[in-house]
Amino acid sequence: MDLFDKIAKTMGGPLGQHQKWSHGYFSFPKLEGEIAPHMYFNGKEHLVWSLNNYLGLANHPEVREADAKAAADFGMAYPMGARMMSGNSKYHEALETGLAEFVGKEDAFLLNYGYQGMVSIIDALVDRNDVIVYDAESHACIIDGVRLHMGKRYVYQHNDIESFEKQLERATRLTDQTGGGILVITEGVFGMSGAQGKLKEIIALKDKFNFRLLIDDAHGFGTMGKTGAGTHEAQDCIDGVDVYFGTFAKSMAGIGAFVAANQDIVNYLRYNMRSQTFAKALPMPMVIGLQKRFELLKSRPELRDNLWKVASSLQKGLKDNGFDIGITDTMVTPVFLKGDLLEATSLTRDLRENHSIFCSIVVYPVIPKGLIELRLIPTALHTIEDVEVTIKALSIVHEKLKAGEYKENVVVA
């Protein structure tokens, strides 16, 4: 069979099969205007709940100024080359030092991107004799890293410590034979459900089993804990996390990521992460801009306070109005409704066209069939009025959904 014929027969894959009618509206939509809670979609102003701009730093005037000045001073090309060869700078190293101290580790290493960074961390840490044990609801970057692993991997039921211990027992029996080690991977904050990973319970099992713990804290860095250092700070278990991964794409509203651990492990990763060894270094405007974002993250606790004020108000209002928001105990706010794909798209179009509310829609295969998830991401820039308007709109469309009004036709006034 011709390769392209085979691709055509899959109709674009589980998500791509819908591209003909969804592209530009439900998938790959264009939000325009200043990055803020109110932006333009299809030429009309919408209240937006889909941006991971948790602390509102994307368009902070000090950030914009730092970005612009760095671009003027250095251009977009500097430094040229990969960090190992010719692309290192004192600015990259200073940011690494600050990040390591902030998250409670000896050293840190900057990564160009979060997704490929996590894939490469996993690839570097384990070999064919090692076993990976990971949470069933791990982010796609973890899943893809695990898929590349040439040794065994065991998955445990989401946040289920009994299931986790059973997989550790299996992994221990195997590594006793291979002479390998065990890498446990979970998330600090699960981005779809908003649940925290059970870090303390996992770490407690180190007394019984020999393993190392890697956490992906993309959503927890900058939002969780007394200082915003992360979910491991919030759960008071910083020392028990062996390798800490955070991204700049969420709280820092930028590009890139970092990995932090003891100095020996970070040095090992510096010389063995293929995604960094063979890739150009982060451009200087991004690095200097990240330094300003990091400074504001640490020095402006009111930003994090307002994020949580908005998130708490949103979640309380949703629950008071009978919505199912699952088990979230973080700022990530899912709204679970019962319905099929047609109903999901009709409801979402109604929200956008008639209520000017823009939020992400999640359906099968990301979540089980028969469920619709509206994923709301509060930020420090949202207001209580935004919350009230949103809950009112969601209540209206929820009643229509329950009445079956979205089963046949898209509802647009």
Determine the fraction of residues in helical runs and give it as a percent range: 40-55%
Strand content: 15-25%
CATH superfamily of the largest domain: Type I PLP-dependent aspartate aminotransferase-like (Major domain)
Q: Could you tell me the number of beta strands? A: 14
Instruction: Kindly report the average pLDDT value.
Output: 94
Gross geometry? globular
Tally the helices: what do you get?
16
Largest sheet: 7 strands, mixed
What is the CATH class name of the largest domain?
A: Alpha Beta
**Rg to the nearest angstrom?**
22 Å
**Structural class of the secondary structure composition?**
alpha/beta
Distance between the termini: 48 Å
What sequence of helices (H) and strands (E) makes up the elements?
Answer: HHHEEEHHEHEHEHEHEHEEHHHHEHEEEH
CATH topology of the largest domain: Aspartate Aminotransferase, domain 2
User: pLDDT under 50 segments (min length 5)?
Assistant: none
CATH arch. level architecture of the largest domain: 3-Layer(aba) Sandwich
Keyphrases for this structure?
413 residues; alpha/beta; Aspartate Aminotransferase, domain 1; Aspartate Aminotransferase, domain 2; 2 domains; four-stranded mixed β-sheet; 15% strand; globular
In short:
The chain is α/β, with parallel strands linked by helices and 413 residues long.
Q: Can you characterise this structure?
A:
- The protein is built from 16 helices and 14 strands.
- The model has no long low-confidence stretch (mean pLDDT 94).
- It folds into two domains: 13-55 and 301-402, Aspartate Aminotransferase, domain 1 (Alpha-Beta Complex), CATH 3.90.1150; 61-299, Aspartate Aminotransferase, domain 2 (3-Layer(aba) Sandwich).
- It has a seven-stranded mixed beta sheet, sandwiched between helices. The protein has a four-stranded mixed beta sheet with strand order 1-2-3-12.
- The protein is globular, with a radius of gyration of 22 Å.
- It is of the alpha/beta class and 413 residues long.
- Helix 14 (301-320) runs parallel beside helix 16 (384-402) and helix 15 crosses helix 16 (384-402).
- The protein has helices at residues 3-9, 13-16, 19-22, 61-74, 90-103, 114-125, 140-148, 161-178, 199-204, 231-234, 263-272, 274-277, 284-299, 301-320, 341-355, 384-402; strands at residues 31-32, 38-41, 44-48, 107-111, 131-135, 152-156, 182-187, 212-216, 243-247, 257-261, 333-338, 357-358, 360-362, 371-376.
